[in-house]
């Protein structure tokens, strides 16, 4: 970077040169010049300090939580109770990206200046707004003195949510849409099928006749309406991401996940969130606006820095009862290994739907058709979302749909 001397450095150099000439020549004029310039430096330095005295700052902020694109509003009021201030630069500091907003004003004695500052949230995450920094400069611009007022406040920016009114879960045993019946962890009068026992099952769920016949523990599955758990599995594996910043598969995945969660929570369903990024993310199913805030706060912080592929995440999800719930998988992965894990969940009682973010539209490699067809062959519907495609349109109907009705799930001869 090229060095650019400031006015202070130029004046200081003149003081040194004038003093050097005075000592070398003995001329009094050089002594006077060096004294005058030195005194000017002292006066301008003190001027800047005094200019920051007698200032009072009052701040009223309308913060709360916002989605990306929302606006944080701050009303700033500055009062001068001391001598006039020719020039003051006032800035509201923030950790939001982009240029900071501020203004330069002059203030008479006992004057008050009030204005409203607006900050647009352009990215999800946790940010700070404040404090207010006031900078005073001397008339010659040689010194700048700053002072900070008020405290910083932390805000959370939620990911964008988009209405997806036509998105729905499939009916049990059918590739169609709408209300369906599915296996659940809670008991009901009707046993739909049996499956392998997992550690989260209670002993009361074991179907002993099938256990004796097969030689391994088998658990009963019960039918229940869709008023229970919907698990959203978010793929945060770093190796499968493409794009950068807002135009990336990571941000699209988070937006889709947030939109799906809000869609089902607004319908009164229990929604849970499961992912494995830099740290495992596990939000147990619940419902209501308070739970929606918990999910949105979790999504505001997630980063696609995971090292576990989606196949391992789904395997781990079995221990949390994903095979007893409705599962929506959101991923940009075109690896052909994980559809087998998704099909396993489907054939063991889960109602599985996949939302595939097309990585090729973000400049990444892969072929979503191969993954979509493999999922359809396993009985799973797949929605495809591409870059710059309206999300409501992409989530209106699946791109890959099973062409058969599942009738091969094992059912016990005499349900207990």
Q: What does it look like?
A:
The protein is an alpha/beta fold and 416 residues long. It folds into three domains: 7-49; 55-132 and 151-158, Sandwich (Immunoglobulin-like), CATH 2.60.40; 182-394, von Willebrand factor, type A domain (Rossmann fold). Helix content is 27%, strand content 31%. It has helices spanning 7-25, 28-51, 208-214, 249-266, 289-301, 310-317, 338-347, 368-377, 391-394, and strands spanning 55-62, 66-67, 71-80, 85-94, 102-107, 112-120, 125-137, 144-149, 153-158, 182-184, 191-196, 218-224, 229-234, 243-244, 247-248, 270-276, 280-286, 326-331, 351-357, 381-385.
* Strand runs, count: 20
The proportion of residues forming helix, as a percent range, comes to 25-40%
Describe the oligomeric state of these chains in a short phrase.
single chain
**Overall number of structural domains:** 3
CATH class of the largest domain: Alpha Beta
Structure class:
alpha/beta
Beta-strand portion reads 25-35%
H/E element order: HHEEEEEEEEEEEHEEEEHEEHHEHEHEH
Q: Extract low-pLDDT stretches.
A: 173-191, 222-227, 405-416
**First-residue to last-residue Cα separation:** 79 Å
Helical run tally: 9
């Amino acid at each position: 970077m090229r060095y650019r001397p400031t006015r202070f450095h130029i004046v200081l150099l003149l003081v040194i040169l004038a003093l050097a000439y005075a000592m070398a020549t003995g001329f009094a004029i050089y002594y006077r010049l060096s004294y005058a310039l030195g005194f000017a430096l002292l006066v301008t330095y003190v001027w800047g300090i005094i200019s920051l005295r007698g200032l009072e700052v009052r701040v009223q902020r309308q913060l709360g939580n916002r989605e990306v694109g929302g606006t944080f509003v701050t009303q700033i009021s500055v009062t001068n109770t001391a001598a006039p201030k020719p020039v003051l630069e006032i800035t509201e500091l923030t950790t939001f990206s982009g240029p900071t907003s501020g203004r330069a004003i002059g203030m008479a004695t006992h004057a008050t200046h009030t204005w409203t500052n607006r900050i647009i949230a352009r990215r999800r995450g946790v940010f700070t707004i404040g404090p207010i920094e006031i900078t005073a400069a001397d008339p010659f611009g040689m010194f700048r003195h700053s002072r900070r007022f008020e405290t910083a406040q932390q805000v959370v920016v939620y990911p964008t949510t988009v209405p997806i009114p036509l998105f729905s879960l499939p009916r049990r045993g059918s590739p169609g849409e709408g209300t369906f019946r599915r296996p659940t962890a809670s008991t009901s009068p009707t046993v739909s099928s049996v499956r392998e026992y997992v550690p989260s099952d209670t002993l009361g769920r074991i179907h002993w006749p099938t256990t004796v016949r097969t030689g391994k523990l088998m658990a009963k599955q019960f039918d229940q309406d869709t008023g229970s758990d919907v698990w959203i599995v978010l793929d945060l594996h770093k190796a499968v991401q493409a794009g950068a910043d807002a135009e990336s598969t990571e941000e699209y995945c988070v937006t889709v996940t947030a939109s799906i969660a809000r869609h089902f929570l607004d319908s009164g369903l229990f929604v849970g969130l499961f992912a494995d990024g830099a740290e495992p993310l596990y939000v147990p199913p619940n419902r209501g606006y308070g739970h929606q805030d918990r999910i949105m706060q979790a999504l505001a912080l997630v980063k696609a820095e995971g090292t576990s592929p989606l196949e391992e995440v789904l395997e781990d999800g079995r221990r949390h009862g994903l095979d007893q719930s409705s599962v929506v998988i959101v991923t940009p992965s075109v690896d052909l290994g994980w559809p087998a894990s998704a099909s396993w969940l489907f054939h063991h009682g889960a109602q599985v739907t996949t939302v595939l973010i097309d990585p090729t539209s973000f400049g990444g490699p892969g072929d979503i058709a191969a993954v979509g067809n493999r999922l359809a062959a396993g009985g799973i519907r797949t929605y495809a979302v591409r870059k710059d495609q309206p999300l409501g349109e992409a989530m209106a109907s699946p791109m890959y749909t099973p062409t058969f009705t599942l009738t091969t799930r094992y059912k016990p001869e005499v349900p207990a």
